[in-house]
Amino acid sequence: MHALVYTQPNEVRLQDRPYPEMADGEVIIKIEAAGICGSDMHAYHGHDPRRNPGLVLGHEFAGTVIESRDTSIAVGDRVSGNPSITCGVCDNCLQGRSNLCSDRTMVGMTRPGAFAEFMSIPAASLIKLPGELATDAAALTEPAATALHAINLAQRALYRPVQEGRVLILGGGAIGMLAALLLTHYGVDRLAVVELNAKRSQSIRDHVGCEVLDTTKTAVTASAYDLVLDCVGAAATRKAAFFAVKPGGAIVHIGLQDWASEIDMRKLTLGEITLVGAFIYTLADMRATVDLLRQGVFGDLAWVEKRSLADGPAAFSDLHHGRTAAAKVLLKPGSTE
């Protein structure tokens, strides 16, 4: 089968790989759409020691089951799913916080991922798709669930409903875009997104309709926002988040571009600011997200770019160089687009 393989920093290549093996309780999926994630780009740049050359990346997927060794999932079922494979028996799993599983593995990291024609995965990780949900839309389940999980945590941290406050999103990539669309759906009308890529900024204006700031030209107002979502996670955006949040507000940290940096502990303490880490999602988040996608909550998704799997190397290069306006690029095995 054809697969897109991370071969060395700043290089992915289309290669022939063996058809996937399938253990008991697993299925094989014919991948129909798989999204390029920021963490895939992090690996592509050689910055993720957990993802080593020779790996098939990709963990945002949708497709059709073609083989099954589990009674819960049948051949022909259309599915998306949780790429984080959890143990189901640790304290966090039993508490419904499977995203914090102490013994998890992951497709596209510890086992071959979705940038391939076929992929194996445990049936317990899958979500069956409603017939009215398009496969390409379903491939956005994973990043949209990340946005949903973060916003759910934010609403618990805020003293007043999120609709009453000002919200700032740092980063207009897929998570930032999906968070902005979801917050707009929730009724947030004082929303701004910081994005430095001019093409992507215009896409946000066109498809979300909120304020977009280029901080190289327009400064963010200090201590002005009730909620700040850091969807980048760089040292600079962490600093910007603390600069922008108002006393009594909340910062939700989602992105993981840099693994360490200083934060303004003085402002956090004196301002009683709540700092929340948001890590991926639970299976319940993903099921809720599939329903939101079915309802069209995230709009027509016209901002998503679709390319063939064979065009994967060019897609990674274009994302690296900022040559595309798309906050999300889907790779489609078998497509000639």
What fold name stands as the CATH topology of the largest domain?
Quinone Oxidoreductase, Chain A, domain 1
Structural class: alpha/beta
% residues in beta strands: 25-35%
Q: Number of helical runs?
A: 10
CATH class of the largest domain: Alpha Beta
- Biggest sheet overview: 7 strands, mixed
What does the average pLDDT come to? Answer: 95
Low-pLDDT stretches? none
Question: What is the alpha-carbon Rg in Å?
Answer: 19 Å
CATH superfamily heading of the largest domain: Medium-chain alcohol dehydrogenases, catalytic domain
Characterize the overall form: globular
Order of helices and strands: EEEHEEEEHEEEHHEHEHEEHEHEHEHE
Measured as a percent range, the helix fraction is 25-40%
CATH architecture assignment name of the largest domain: Alpha-Beta Complex
What is the count of structural domains?
Answer: 2
Beginning-to-end CA distance, first to last residue: 19 Å
Total beta-strand segments: 18
